[in-house]
């Protein structure tokens, strides 16, 4: 979490994770499964519409 001193700069919180599973034991040679999870939150003290649009691009 980032908490800037400038009130015009938003607070930013993020966490990202990487998950990976082994191949099933009953299916040797099958590919592993993997994916990314997590997310990002932007919490402005002062909302500017153009910043909101830019963040969600």
TrEMBL record:
One of its GO terms (cellular component) is chloroplast stroma. Its EC number is 1.3.3.3. GO terms for biological process: protoporphyrinogen IX biosynthetic process. Coiled coil: none annotated. The keyword Membrane does not apply. One of its GO terms (molecular function) is coproporphyrinogen oxidase activity. Signal peptide: none annotated. Pathway: Porphyrin-containing compound metabolism; protoporphyrin-IX biosynthesis; protoporphyrinogen-IX from coproporphyrinogen-III (O2 route): step 1/1. Keywords: Oxidoreductase, Porphyrin biosynthesis. It is an enzyme of class 1 (oxidoreductase). Gene3D superfamilies: Coproporphyrinogen III oxidase, aerobic. It comes from the Eukaryota. It catalyses: coproporphyrinogen III + O2 + 2 H(+) = protoporphyrinogen IX + 2 CO2 + 2 H2O. Belongs to the aerobic coproporphyrinogen-III oxidase family. Homodimer. This is coproporphyrinogen oxidase.
């Amino acid at each position: 979490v980032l908490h800037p001193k400038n009130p015009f700069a938003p607070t930013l919180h993020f966490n990202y994770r990487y998950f990976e599973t082994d191949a099933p034991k009953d299916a040797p040679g099958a590919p592993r499964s993997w994916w990314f999870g997590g997310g990002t939150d932007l919490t402005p003290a002062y909302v500017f519409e153009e910043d909101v649009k830019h963040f969600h691009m």
